Amino acid sequence: MPGTNNKALLPSNPTLKDINWYKKQINWGELPPFYHLVASSVSESEGILEHGFDNAVKRLIDKRNWNLDLLGGHEDSLGEIHCENKPRIALHQIFTDRGFELWALPYAKDVTIDQYIKDNRFMEFKVWDPVTMRNLIRINQLHKFIGFYFERGDTADKALILHAHKTVHKIVNFLQRELNVVKLDGVTIKDFYQLCEKDSRACSDEIDIARIMLGDTTSKE
To answer: Fewer Cβ atoms within 10 Å of its own Cβ: the N or the C terminal residue of the chain?
Structure first.
């Protein structure tokens, strides 16, 4: 097994499959439950743009739910919808007790809305249902996983965190192409990672100073 571990290497730009394989190589062929929980959430988030399943992102870009009168749109004889404008949304990145989430909020006039609204002439979507449309992605317990990494994580854990950040960035870029993203704010995965890294270094520095002080005390005795 040590020989196998020595040969395990991550590519420079690994896929999630690469990272999972690497994690198994350095962990006796297994994926720890906590790692698996986060990796599964990242995989689901990646699948939002790749699979045909119904999800919040697909509901946002469904032109059949756009207010064509407000957006200068029309449906041609073939049933294809054309719009001069795209509906505005605000994207908010947040860490909750559940993990990392990416939220979308629509605009009515110049105000974001976070409640159910249907057939409102000022709303750029025919129906806005926050239950099925607000929370675009969730990476379960990512905040705790990042904290775990700085305590006793390995290179595969770090690679998974970085891949999660790239996945969110890819989804945000997609939404910026398909919709009119007026605002993008909140705490990114990178922000949270760097904050934990700073705290980890501060804690390490405090321990080093404490050891020095203890050493000084011992030497004086």
So the answer is: C
Angle among Cα 96, 98, 103 to the nearest 5 degrees reads 55
User: What are the start-end ranges of the E strands in 64-152?
Assistant: 73-75, 81-83, 88-96, 99-108, 111-112, 117-118, 127-128, 135-140
Say how far residue 216 (Cα) sits from the centre of its chain. Answer: 47
pLDDT digits (tens, 9 = 90+) for 105-164: 999 999 999 999 999 999 999 999 999 999 999 999 999 999 999 999 999 999 999 999
On the question of pLDDT at 34 being above 60, the answer is: yes
Provide the greatest CA pair distance for the chain: 93
Task: Read off the pTM.
Answer: 0.85
Specify whether the CB–CB gap between 128 and 116 falls below 8 A: yes
Distance, in Å, from the CA atom of 186 to the CA atom of 173, rounded to the nearest integer, reads 16
Rg (CA), the chain: 23
**DSSP secondary-structure letter at 65?**
G
Closest to 59 measured CA to CA, from 93, 104, 110: 104
* Residue-level pLDDT at 219: 38
Q: Where are the domains of the chain?
A: 12-220
pLDDT in tens, 177-215: 999 999 999 999 999 999 888 877 655 555 555 556 656
Alpha helix stretches (DSSP H) within 10-81: 16-25, 33-50, 56-60, 68-71
